[in-house]
Amino acid sequence: MKPNARVLLVEDESSIADNIKYALNAASFEVLWATSGMEALTLFKEQAIDLVILDIGLPDIDGFEVCRQIRELSQVPLLFLTARSDEIDRVVGLEMGADDYICKPFSPRELVARVKTNLRRYQISPPLAAVPSQDESLVLNDENRTVHFRGQLLDITRYEFGILQVMHKHPKRVYSREELLEKVWHEPDNSMDRVVDTHIKTLRAKLKEVDEKAEVIKTHRGIGYSLEIY
Ligand code: CA
Known about the structure:
The protein has helices at residues 14-26, 37-46, 63-73, 85-93, 108-124, 127-130, 158-169, 177-185, 195-210; strands spanning 6-10, 30-34, 51-55, 78-82, 100-103, 138-141, 146-149, 152-153, 217-220, 224-227. It is α/β, with parallel strands linked by helices. The chain folds into 2 domains: 6-124, Rossmann fold; 138-227, Orthogonal Bundle (Arc Repressor Mutant, subunit A). Strands 2-1-3-4-5 form a 5-stranded parallel sheet, with helices on both faces. The two termini are 27 Å apart. The structure holds calcium ion.
């Protein structure tokens, strides 16, 4: 298991949250704590999260809704905390996209064991590596010009977005520098010779921040670039 996996804990009751944090910290997990659904979603979009522990009864939107929104972005392991049997029925019956659930009250030791099992299961058959799909890899939103890679929001510039947008339409197709210049910058001039390479370089660095091993943009020497993950 990767050391210091980061867990997002979504729980509005601080006494319960404190116990969980203590147990996870003792097992060398890093814990980010959110006390509401909206806060959890914001944290999830901003940070690299390895596993989510999600209470169902939250002060704003409930855990089911938080789960639904996280699942639009990522297949990260997700464990529900539930207090009532009707909640368990919903978790199990409606296939909420949760990987596991644990009933309150639970022992911190039991919870840590569940977290470890779910992380391990995820790493043995990582759905992202096995079947790259649009949901899990590179998601572009043309309307608000955002890019999510492996569920994480990238801090991206206008031209970096433009490059991805063009290449995303035809993955694996090789685009020459001239073609990208024309499609993204519209009125390029001669002084912009290296501008595409510079932007590809910064873009790659941002993608590698999310996944160091990912080869998202491939260089074809003397020809141009292609998008390999989509
Ligand atoms: Ca609660």
